[in-house]
Write a structure and sequence with these properties.
Elements: H1 9-44, H2 46-71, H3 73-82, H4 87-118, H5 126-139, H6 143-158, H7 166-185, H8 195-218, H9 224-227, H10 235-267, H11 271-308, H12 311-338, H13 340-344, H14 351-383, H15 388-412, H16 416-451
Helix pairs in contact: 1-2, 1-7, 1-8, 1-11, 1-12, 2-4, 2-5, 2-6, 2-10, 2-11, 3-4, 3-6, 3-11, 4-5, 4-6, 4-10, 5-8, 6-8, 7-8, 10-15, 10-16, 11-12, 11-14, 12-14, 12-16, 14-16, 15-16
Length: 452
């Protein structure tokens, strides 16, 4: 067993911040693109906000599953680093992740376009369908560069050298806003595309972002050799990425699928309810990116600890990140309750949509607390190399608990969109509790195996 000293709580927090903050920053910057898009949709009206919101929800469904395929890449590299694996092995893992990202992105494009034509089967408003379909087609090509960026980010994080993209992403947001105006209103000789132009602008910005990150990594003398030069990954290395990635993708997809179904159910309540759902869901989605950063950061810490054989440190890392996440979610919850109008102001909603959104914000206080805990727990399990437990738990929690409660509260009891959100909260709460339990059992089992 390694003689590396056990980090103090302060040291653990510092290391977690060093890993989580850059990841959360990139996530927040990425979400800022869809947030500015959502704000622009609100300017175009309630129907556009409803249609665009549905398009982004389904885009996020496909994106989330594709990202899940390469999310374990950072863990594999961190584990290899923890046991001092040779450079060729680390290089093979990194390049295998890029191959998987490319194939997943191309498949995702096909699925998203096909899904846009399947919307008519779900009883959506014809005006919503007319706006959602072309926007989904415009968003689809952006999946490939988006996944390249995720693979490169996972590689850098696994090497424990996460890079800050904040200046580039801030520039991307400004470019996105400018391109939105150009394509929406047909400025500077561009075609007037309306809602579809928002999707096209986002795709263009994805290409800019991954290009900038690639240049940043190329300038790092430690990281660049793993990404450049001759050599390609073996079939086995690609399979190893998929071995951890497929269960993770299905786990992420299970949650995203529940929210996609929720959006379709809420669509039955009319454009006002769907617009309110879109606005509040985007707010919660912004905050959720902090949980993503914490999840990835703690996952890498656990992988590194397990690579050293330090099970006690793995438990301590879990306690630390869950505590930090709970405090952050509580602070945002206070903001929702104290200043709901200010929180909703950027989305330009009023009347019935605003009233529904105000109620959804109250439910969101509870929902995001459980969503944060279960997302961190997924990362902790992945740090143990256990992606299957998370998948099994989410299949039960989301579809056997969350969806039935959502349908009963929303449709049977007549509580509408807030009732659907209560169902989502119930499913997330179940998953959080069961995943944390599975993690603690997994660590205990590893300790017994070591002492046997």
């Amino acid at each position: 067993m390694t003689t590396t000293p056990t980090p103090t709580r302060k040291g653990r927090l510092k290391e977690l911040a060093a890993l989580a903050v850059p990841i959360a920053g990139i996530q927040l910057a990425q979400v800022a693109l869809t947030t500015t898009d959502t704000v622009m949709m609100g300017v175009l009206g309630v129907a556009a906000l409803a249609a665009g919101g549905l398009a982004i929800t389904l885009f996020n469904q496909v994106r989330t599953m594709c990202v899940g395929l390469i999310t374990g890449l950072g863990n594999q590299i961190a584990h290899a680093q923890g046991r001092s694996a040779p450079d060729d092995e680390v290089r093979g893992i990194a390049r295998a992740g890029l191959v998987v990202a490319t194939l997943a992105g191309l498949a995702g494009v096909v699925v998203l376009v096909a899904l846009s034509y399947a919307l008519g089967w779900f009883g959506q408003d014809p005006q919503v369908l007319a706006g959602a379909r072309p926007m989904m087609a415009a968003l689809a090509p952006g999946l490939v560069p988006l996944l390249w960026l995720q693979a490169l980010r996972q590689f850098a994080t696994g090497m424990r050298k996460p890079k800050s993209l904040l200046p580039v992403m801030l520039a991307s947001i400004a470019v996105n806003v400018g391109l939105n105006f150009v394509f929406i209103y047909g400025l500077l000789g561009a075609p007037k595309l309306g809602l579809t132009g928002i999707g096209l602008a986002t795709t263009a910005v994805q290409l800019f972002s991954v290009g900038a990150f690639w240049l940043i990594l190329r300038r790092d003398q430690q990281l660049a050799p793993y990404l450049t030069g001759p050599g390609r990954p073996t079939v086995q290395e690609v399979k190893d990425v998929l071995k951890l990635g497929v269960p993770t993708a299905l786990t992420y997809g299970s949650e995203a699928g529940l929210f996609s179904v929720a959006a379709l159910v809420i669509g039955h309540f009319g454009p006002a309810a769907l617009a309110a759902h879109t606005a509040v869901n985007q707010i919660v989605y912004i905050v959720f990116q902090i949980s993503v950063g914490l999840s990835h950061g703690s996952s890498v810490l656990v992988s590194h600890a397990m690579g050293r054989g330090d099970k006690a440190e793995a438990r301590e890392a879990a306690k630390t990140v869950l505590s930090v996440g709970a405090v952050i979610m509580a602070l945002f919850g206070v903001v929702y309750l104290v200043a709901p109008r200010l929180v909703l102001w950027p989305f330009h909603i009023a009347g019935q949509a605003a009233a529904i959104a105000g109620t959804l914000l109250i439910v969101a206080v509870v929902q995001q607390f459980f969503d944060n805990a279960q997302n961190i727990a997924v990362g902790l399990l992945r740090g143990l190399g256990d992606a299957k437990s998370g998948l099994k738990i989410t299949l039960v929690g989301y579809w056997a608990v969350g969806l039935p409660v959502a349908l009963v509260c929303g449709l049977v009891l007549g509580w509408g969109a807030p009732g659907v959100w209560l169902g989502l909260s119930a499913g997330l709460a179940f998953c959080a509790a069961m995943m944390i339990r599975a993690f603690l059992r997994g660590v205990a089992a590893a300790v017994k195996d070591e002492t046997a």
